[in-house]
Amino acid sequence: MLVLFGALLHATWNAMIKAGTDKSLDASLISAGGAVCALPFLMFLPLPNAAAWPFIGASAVLQFVYFQLVAGAYREGDIGLVYPLMRGCAPLLIAATSGFILDETLSTGAVIGTMTICAGILTLAFEARRGGGHAIRLALANACVIATYTYVDGIGARISGNAVSYTLWMSLLPPVLLFTWATSKRGTVAVAAHVRYNWWRGLIGGGGSIASYGLALWAMTKAPVATVAALRETSILFALLISVIVLKEKASAWRYLAGAIIALGGLILKLG
């Protein structure tokens, strides 16, 4: 249930980036908002174990690349194409490789459930009405980044001694990298103006982002990484609800079919 709640938060902050006027700066703002939300809690938590700090550094670089690719993919293609490819391919990669990377053995039910969820997510790509080859390449590249940082953070959270502490410390460096990059490309005045008028977007989206990922990392300390990664990608169901109920967008038959397949996958995971 906590992972599913995190999936809802994940879909919400992604929708905020997609709906924003400047996707690159909005992605940076949401990353910064997560760091701001994390700061007050750091003094109440133990430091991560020393062995976890290299993972925190590696994760920061991967998160920087991730946010850049998210913004680029949403500029180039329809969310109906980009989001399913990014979020659907990553757990497939993890499920295919977790056996020899983490020496985790999935039950038959977990494998079937994971594959079913991924199939449902990828079904949404069929209903995309726009988005060309460049959008697809960006989405697939980001799927590789997502799979990589999932491994890095899954291992890092386990050896840190405290998954919440790991998540909060991990959130501090990516916005520094993102805003340094944005300032070098856009100039201080443009970046400052966007922050002035959209700071609330960063706080709301950032709080959701850090809470969503923290819940996933905590779950990875209790269950196989591949299973958690697949269940987390049910965020696409919440994205469907947001698009239909909040944004009043028309949903094709592909979206409803995907929703049914993803729900079936979640049930198989629970029973398996």
From TrEMBL:
Bilayer-crossing residues are: 51-74, 81-102, 108-126, 138-157, 163-182, 203-220, 226-247, 254-271
Q: Name one GO molecular function term.
A: transmembrane transporter activity
Gene Ontology CC, one term = plasma membrane
How this chain sits in the membrane, per its record, is: Multi-pass membrane protein
The species this protein belongs to is Rhizobium mesoamericanum STM3625
Q: Which residues form the EamA domain?
A: 138-268
Name a Pfam family for this protein. Answer: EamA
Query: Which family does the similarity line name?
Result: Belongs to the drug/metabolite transporter (DMT) superfamily. Small multidrug resistance (SMR) (TC 2.A.7.1) family.
| Gene3D superfamilies for this protein | 1.10.3730.20
Task: Provide a GO biological process annotation.
Answer: lipid A biosynthetic process
Q: Which terms are listed as keywords in the entry?
A: Cell inner membrane, Cell membrane, Lipid A biosynthesis, Lipid biosynthesis, Lipid metabolism, Lipopolysaccharide biosynthesis, Membrane, Transmembrane, Transmembrane helix, Transport
Where found?
Cell membrane
Cell membrane in keyword set: yes
Q: Which InterPro entries match?
A: EamA_dom (IPR000620), EmrE-like (IPR037185), Small_drug/metabolite_transptr (IPR000390)
The name under which this protein is listed is: EamA domain-containing protein
